[in-house]
């Protein structure tokens, strides 16, 4: 688009809404396909994909990376990125080093709405917050997989099993792609077994307001960049369950900076409920997660 903008005397500046870690990873692989990254923290496992849907051909990935790189190269003098140096300092610098014309990369911070600015349904909001108010501090996990990712029936049941096995309080925002009833996807008798410590909510919920609540102790997330930045800005540690696009690379970043742990799929490339439970307990309950919980608060800044 830069040639068209330039012909009209208008600067064209790219605003990159993905993080620097994932873009520098892909740009490096595009420019230096047989060379390892300087940092080994960001990587993809054999079954994982990024910047594309899971079943897309590999040549589409190369084309997508090339188009994205060309947009970065064409940005006029500067490149804006939705990130901050507290999270991605070395990757912002690495991204800069990969661009041939060495333009400035300007991080614009997390750019997330404040919880009080978030629109919500008063009835839905009050129902969730009233339920959460009676729980103990940092005792509850919030579970959400965003607006573009849908769990398979098998994944849905493994997440449900993991939440049950963890014995940790949870709020689970459920979305199904084909209007399936949640009760039909859950294991038999599940709602009765978890009714004292689990709230399953269909549709939309005020994510920022929930994450801000002092009784939330972790966020089970698909690792979409916006959700991660929101969680980090509020000091909530992350239980990473990545699926597609930039999410696997984002999950590696979460682990590298010490802001959470990842639920790693088994050799069969499937989620395992017992592993989901183990990571939830490690983040929210166990002493092993104390340093990570402290890091989450430090990333959010004073007062979190």
TrEMBL record:
<keyword id="KW-0808">Transferase</keyword>
<dbReference type="GO" id="GO:0008194">
    <property type="term" value="F:UDP-glycosyltransferase activity"/>
</dbReference>
<dbReference type="InterPro" id="IPR035595">
    <property type="entry name" value="UDP_glycos_trans_CS"/>
</dbReference>
<keyword id="KW-0328">Glycosyltransferase</keyword>
<dbReference type="GO" id="GO:0016138">
    <property type="term" value="P:glycoside biosynthetic process"/>
</dbReference>
<comment type="similarity">
    <text>Belongs to the UDP-glycosyltransferase family.</text>
</comment>
<dbReference type="Pfam" id="PF00201">
    <property type="entry name" value="UDPGT"/>
</dbReference>
<protein>
    <submittedName>
        <fullName>Glycosyltransferase</fullName>
    </submittedName>
</protein>
<dbReference type="InterPro" id="IPR002213">
    <property type="entry name" value="UDP_glucos_trans"/>
</dbReference>
